[in-house]
Amino acid sequence: MVDAPLDCTTVTECTVDADESVDKICRRMAELRRELVFDMQDVSRSTKAMTSPSFYMRKFPWATLAVVAGLGYLLIPKKKQFVQPDMKALAELVRKNQVKINTSKASEESMMKTLAVMGLSWVSKAGTNYLVQQMTTRAARAKSPGAAPSSPVDEPTSVKR
Known about the structure:
The protein is 61% helix and 0% strand. The chain is an all-alpha fold. It folds into 2 domains: 1-82; 87-142. The longest helix is centred in the last third of the chain and has 38 residues, at 106-143.
């Protein structure tokens, strides 16, 4: 029997004659498996290369520079403009009712509210710490079979004199 190559252009078009030997089919399958391993290694290598930023920097340096410049422009905040009007401009804005001046005692009220919130948060924190401390000491007492001695002098000794 003559070893003629299989009629395959793609894997789905591969045809096998009925009179081909089993050994020939096994050799062809082994060859395809070896090729598959190398193909997978090539795909893995090219995927790693294409996911690396240095690939794009080497291949497309100007496009990379443009993308980085655009991102830098978008990420860096713009300078705020501070307008310091003079007294004449402020008086004109007040006359036109474009600026309203609030002369209430909001600053005193807000300071009192801030102090009250600070005091309440301190009290709640101290209370929580106290409760946690009490719970841990009670849990420790419940676990120990007897009362723990308060000092080494209270411990019983087995030394006879």
